[in-house]
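call fold(seq) -> tokens
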Amino acid sequence: MAAAATIEHVVLFKVRDSTDPSKVDAMVSNLRSLASLDVVAHLAAGPVLPRPHRSATGFTHLLHSRYRSKADLAAYSTHPSHVAVVAENVLPVCEDIMAMDWVADLDSPTAAPPGSAMRLTLAKPKEGATAELTATLAQVKLSAPAAVTQVTYGENFSPARAKGYGVGLLAVFRDLEELEAMDAGEKDLVESVKEKVRPLLESFIVVDFEVPPPPAATL
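ret:
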């Protein structure tokens, strides 16, 4: 099947420690409700998985969504429902937010199935290293283990909220057990990837996320 261009949109949220849990739940549920917008091909939101040994710079939640075009992403960004959720449920409880968008070539279904696990890496390349980094990630995609059902990567085209991070990489696994099994059983592969990309990076952020069930339909 020929690959089809898809727009990846990822947002990381850092919720204030003092936030009432009910307000955190409201933020997540209202973000998930945006999946019903016609321009959204896929949307999932929820807490990132705790990984004390990995750099997540304190981010607590993630939103991942996909669009058929940059125009659809722009329509989502300005849609009154999205604007309202951000103003009423996100900004009042978050002390930090960053976002990144890139164009991905996908040869599998646009939606990441519920129960899938994702590993998101946001990279800040060293000056002049972006092209070499994306070429290296193309090689990484070709050598991805069988447990990885999708790999997308690309150069960020929305720098305003990316804090200088210029390249995104998203790996989707069948489930969380497959992701953790790769960490435990494919250490040589993981280390070889790190050896290839580390010299090209100024810094990076890695978070893991489990795709939740879709929101229940309302009558």
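The CA atoms of residues 7 and 70 lie 7 Å apart.
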